[in-house]
Amino acid sequence: MKQFLRSPFFNHSNKYPILKNIRSNHSKIKTLCREVNPICQMQKRSYSSIREDSKMFTLSDFIKENNLTPVYSYENLDLDITRKQILRETKGLSGIYLILNKVTFDFYVGSASTDRFYARFSNHLIYFRGSKIVKNAVKKYKLSNFAFLILELFPEVVTKENNKKLLDREDFYLKSMLPNYNILTEAGSSFGYKHTELDRIKMKSNYSLERRLQIGNLNKGKSLKPETIEKIRNKALLRDRTNIKLSKEFLLNMKTNSKAITLFNLDKTVFGEYNSICDTAKAINCSTKTIYRALKTDKNLLKRRFIVKHTPPFGK
Question: Does a structural domain hold residue 172?
Answer without folding.
Answer: yes
